[in-house]
Amino acid sequence: MEYASFPLLSLIIFIPALGALLIGFVPGLTAGLIKRLAAGFAFVSLALSIALFAMFDLNSASQFQFVEQRDWIPQIGVQYLLAVDGLSLPMVLLTTFLGFLAVFVSWKIDHRVREYFAYLLLLQASILGVFMAQDLLLFLLFWEIEIIPMYFLISIWGHGRKDYSAMKYVIYTIFGGAMLLAGILFLYFKAGPVMPVGESAFNMIALRDVGQAGIVTALPLAAFALLLLGFAVKLPVVPLHTWLPDAHTDAPTAVSVMLAGSLLKMGGYGMIRIATIFPDEARSVAPIVLVFAVIGVIYGAALTLRQTDLKRLIAYSSVSHMGYVLLGIFALSSMSVAGATLQMFAHGVISGLLFAMCGLVYDKVHTRHIPDLGGLVRYMPVIVVVFVVAGLASLGLPGTAGFAAEFITFLGAFGTSTIPGIRWYTLIGLIGVVVTAGYILWMVERAFFREPKPQYEHAKDADWIERVAPFALVAVIMVVGIYPRILTDVIRFTTENLFVE
């Protein structure tokens, strides 16, 4: 491990948290100042994460870099342990990027502005903590903290059945957290006696080294199953997905951006981590998990076809796309896991853009009901063009991040022999790509390119502040699609040492 001489990771996490405290408790702040402060704190965290990405050393002998390690609860071996590797670094960059843009997406919020932006910054800080924590209890702490801002953001600033959706999200997340806690405790007591001297069984880096070295040949399958179930709730895996469409549909736009862009990725990220700690157990359950992956791809895509609400359609498409992530992870090859990680990043920016544009459509015409829309390209061409770009990226158009991620995932999964029958799972999963093209193009045609309706002739296009987030997201989608090595070199720096080709 390469230890940091400067607490860069802590700053990336706690600068948004500090912003949340200042906005929440300093009296006399105007709404405009609160928004500028939120943007400033989010931007500093983003700038530091870009610097972190630039300084990450691909020639280093250490997988984990910028390590910060302090004793926290030494009686049981809990540490304040932060680090990044090729798996976590793209997720950190994604979260700070979306967190900064979420402030601009929220710029016209005028109800309880102080609390809203405080919760939004706290949400960003908690997600960042999940991606950087390398101690299991610290990881779980950050995992649970995000429940608080998410509940209030949906229940106060949401729409429709916002209280129901917020409570459903909390119940599912607490259930997943309980599974994680049980798995962590099970692992701690079973693995503790065989850990190297001086290493705690909460240390995820040490646990990974033990698992990869085969020192522990039979880490309990029950611990793996509990952790996998906890992460499956967050990804989400069918049939544990029912909280997601409700949360997306009723959440404010910026919260949907963060939920689809970063929160779901916590589940996939956690699965990759436990697959490196439990390599034998991961191989043994992979055929079963892959069944759920292809079911998620096909079932999610089929449900998407039936949706008449723009936001709910995008939500169900996320269920389908997370099936690709699950397929890539449990193909257990270096390339497929790299593809799954790139898919998480690509889906983060693409779904974030889709939800941002969906919010703009609703703000301009006050409906998301697809049959009521039509011909909007005449009245709001910028919004429609960006929406179409996002849709084409979602269906995997070459030259976009969606294509690069899906291609690497399917190529890696199809080319491995680690899992019996993996080629059949991959071929079935490819059906989802065809269905995705169908529902995206059908949605775009119905909502934007049919006969214009006179009731929308006074609808306005996006103004300059509303164009900041969409244009930035389009730029990232195109850059990663044209030159995916900007991320894949970092990702494969880690995956090539943990998984077979």
Q: How does the overall form come out from the CA principal axes?
A: globular
Poorly predicted residue ranges: none
Number of strands: 2
Strand order of the biggest β-sheet: 1-2
The first-to-last residue Cα distance is 24 Å
Order of helices and strands: HHEEHHHHHHHHHHHHHHHHH
- Average pLDDT reading: 92
Rg (C-alpha, Å): 22 Å
For the largest beta-sheet, the strand count, sense and barrel status come to:
2 strands, antiparallel
Count of structural domains: 2
Specify the number of helices: 19
Strand fraction equals under 5%
Percent helix range: over 70%
Helix and strand composition category? mainly alpha
Topology diagram in text:
Layout: H1 8-25, H2 31-55, E1 65-73, E2 78-84, H3 88-105, H4 113-132, H5 136-145, H6 147-157, H7 162-191, H8 204-213, H9 221-234, H10 243-250, H11 253-277, H12 279-305, H13 310-331, H14 334-365, H15 381-394, H16 401-414, H17 422-448, H18 464-482, H19 485-495
Antiparallel strand pairs: 1-2
Helix pairs in contact: 1-2, 1-4, 2-3, 2-4, 3-4, 3-11, 3-14, 3-18, 4-5, 4-6, 4-11, 5-7, 6-7, 7-9, 7-10, 8-11, 9-11, 10-13, 11-12, 11-13, 11-14, 12-13, 12-17, 13-14, 13-16, 13-17, 14-15, 14-16, 14-18, 14-19, 15-17, 15-18, 16-18
